[in-house]
Amino acid sequence: MAETVNTYEEPKPESQEHVEAMLDKVEKSQAAGQERPDWLPEKFKSPEDMAKAYSQLESKMGSQEQETTEAEEYSGDETPNQVSDLLDDRGLDFDVFQQEYAELGGLSEEAYEALEQAGFPPEMVDSWIEGQNAVAEKMTTEIKSVVGGEQEYNTLMQWASQNLPEQDIDAYNATMESQNPDMIRLAVQGLHARYRSEGEPSLVQGGTGMASTGGRFDSTAELTAAMQDPRYDKDPAYRQQVADKLRRSSLF
């Protein structure tokens, strides 16, 4: 037995250009005083009926376009700096929310209400926070792996807090807060190299154990400039030179 074939096709939605063209025809027909123009579709009794229908369709299309624009305004992948700019445009201070989250472990109802009034519903806020927490956790794991894992990293941090000058600790903390993965990774590598040369017990007998002489970075600006050099992304030997130079420096 042959199967029944469904030949029904969903009507295609009218385009904005078609709607505007039909409304223009109605206006011209009304101006000419025609009772029923030849071009008027049979489903409409008069040009006025068609004008009303197409006006409603035009309004609906406009609202749908606005909803789409609003939905695409935020991707959910914005960086903290981008979110800060968005909040600033709406008269809100990102740092205030960030500090509250750090102190309370979450946002208060008042914070959620203020964000929702600015166009950020709670679901969007929670989703963004969860995403940032995942990014931070991944970065933390990667950074700790640079020095050999969590235990080695904790030992490094303890040594740094007890032996580094205050200005070096401040510089290191500023780098960690920069949210720049490359800068953070290089800072941890430099601090670890310094710990190994100054604080870690040496297994080598004899010799002075001093690092070889050579250039060093006198400021974080010099380090940043070196990392922005095109060779840093393409030349492993150059990256090693930067790491060696950082190891001889006292930035972190």
Give a verbal description of the structure.
- The protein is mostly helical and 252 residues long.
- The protein is built from 12 helices and no strands.
- Among the domains are: 43 residues, no CATH class; 41 residues, no CATH class; 90 residues, no CATH class.
- 66% of the residues lie in helices and 0% in strands.
- The longest helix has 26 residues.
- The chain starts with 15 loop residues before the first helix and ends in a 5-residue tail after the last helix.
- The N terminus is likely disordered.
Describe the secondary structure blueprint for this structure:
Layout: H1 16-32, H2 47-72, H3 80-89, H4 94-104, H5 109-117, H6 122-146, H7 150-163, H8 166-176, H9 181-198, H10 220-228, H11 231-234, H12 236-247
Helix pairs in contact: 1-2, 9-12
Would you identify the regions where 5 or more consecutive residues have pLDDT less than 50? 1-13, 67-72, 201-214
Please tell me what the overall shape is.
elongated
What do the pLDDT scores average to? 74
Largest sheet: none
Residue share in helix: 55-70%
Strand content: under 5%
Strands, total number: 0
Can you give me a brief rundown of this structure?
By secondary structure, this protein is mainly α.
Descriptive tags:
single chain; 252 residues; mainly alpha; 12 helices; 66% helix; disordered N terminus
